[in-house]
Amino acid sequence: MKMDKALADTRQAVEKQDAAEHKIIPDETENAAPVMSERLVGVVGGFIAAIGAVSMGLYTPAMPEIVQAFGTTEAMVKLTLSTFFGGFCLAQLVCGPMADGWGRRPVTIGYMLVYLIASVAALLSSNIETLLVARFFQGVGAAVGVTVSRAMVRDLFTNEASARVMNLIGIVIAVGPAVSPTLGGLTMHYFGWHAIFVIMVLLGLAVVLTAVFVIRETGTPDRTRLHIKPLLSAYGRLLRSRHFMYPTLAVAGATGALYTAATILPFVLMQKIGLSPTEFGLGLLLQTSFYLSGGLLFRVLMGRFGARELATAGYVIILAASAMIITMLSLFEPTYLRVMLPMACYAFGIAFVMPQMTSAGMAPFPQMAGSASALMGFFQMSGGLVGGSVAATLSDPLFAMALLIPSFGVLAMGSYILWRRLPPLPPVILR
């Protein structure tokens, strides 16, 4: 009996020490009814998180046309995506702590107003320099969607419930990119590229109204999170935590490939293969429909296999798709299916990966969910920024695609393997 008591005391001491090292306490609202349901958080969170992807999807069919309209170069127009990624990355590091300090709802409203104003500026742009600045601030405003949606999930749900909501958010996000390139191509064909930014203005207005009238405050604002010392301390703890960094890099490698492809594909499909802007928009439906199908299949299979096992399958699919990309683009003449079918398979694998790995990175940090979400989003968009910037320096978009997309796949798989080898955290940290 004495030995059993000693073992129990030792176990409790270890759990307390681990909790102290992570500066985390159990979630006191674990058994309380959430202020927003799983379905509402999934739909609303997906809507506000999708604004960034939709802004890219609407815009990409117009990129070659904007080269001609402003009398500029392909590299400069590609830079408009890089500046969008740059604004998104930098804003992530700020809006997350702001959401912890001032609350999810007011910060969402503020940042979406920035997005709305920047969309108006993009609409009125008369030269590439003005458009670059407008796209940067569009990225700044859109950054809040991903950060706040993840933070709301961590505020209200844990474990399998968290994975379910993340999966629903992923499905909602998939609908936007599925429709937006087609909508962008049709809009440009009938009304010109300026009309694309009219749609962005309307979307910005819709997101602001959603934040004002639908979103409820899910966090407990703590103004001390806004002080520079606690903020740097929080980011320092996250960067030092392998339980955060490995899942984050596993996600960033996967999504960085899609963001990089968004920079490259307009010039591959329209200039190398010869698709029109409308055909380009319709052609991207293959990739996004595979992602959506993967998300729906994940939701069906999760009860039987579990999110962790499905994530493993997702990374295997990503590696297989990476090998297909290298083979198709290096050994054969490019065609629509040779380019898009491997990318569609890649997207299918990502749908299996995102719910588990996003939840895994966020779970140990309930008291700094906004900061954790922000830093995770920063790494994700940094992948797109780095990939897009490198692609802009390479003259051959086919070579850029064959080089960069598989490289991101290897980074994702390697990070996932390292995460799987970590010892599990004590239950007190994961509640």
Please give a structural write-up.
With 431 residues, this protein is mainly α. It has one domain (34-222, 234-423): MFS general substrate transporter like domains (Growth Hormone, Chain: A), CATH 1.20.1250.20. The protein contains 17 helices and no strands. The protein has helices spanning 2-22, 38-59, 63-69, 74-102, 104-123, 128-156, 159-191, 194-213, 228-240, 242-272, 277-283, 285-305, 307-331, 336-362, 369-393, 397-420, 427-430. The protein is globular, with a radius of gyration of 21 Å. Mean pLDDT is 82; it is low at 1-11 and 13-31. InterPro entries: Efflux_drug-R_Bcr/CmlA, MFS, MFS_dom, MFS_trans_sf. The chain crosses the membrane at residues 40-59, 79-96, 108-126, 132-153, 165-184, 190-215, 244-268, 280-298, 310-329, 335-354, 398-419.
- The CATH architecture name reads Up-down Bundle
Structural class: mainly alpha
At the first level of CATH, the class is Mainly Alpha
Q: Mean of the pLDDT scores? A: 82
Unreliable stretches: 1-11, 13-31
Share in β-strands: under 5%
What is the alpha-carbon Rg in Å?
21 Å
CATH superfamily: MFS general substrate transporter like domains
Query: What is the number of E strands?
Result: 0
Reading the helices and strands in chain order gives HHHHHHHHHHHHHHHHH
Query: Which fold name corresponds to the CATH topology?
Result: Growth Hormone, Chain: A
User: Main sheet, how many strands, which sense, barrel?
Assistant: none
The total domain count is: 1
Helix content: over 70%
Keywords: Cell inner membrane, Cell membrane, Membrane, Transmembrane, Transmembrane helix, Transport
Protein name: Bcr/CflA family efflux transporter
GO molecular function, one term: xenobiotic transmembrane transporter activity
Region (Disordered): 1-23
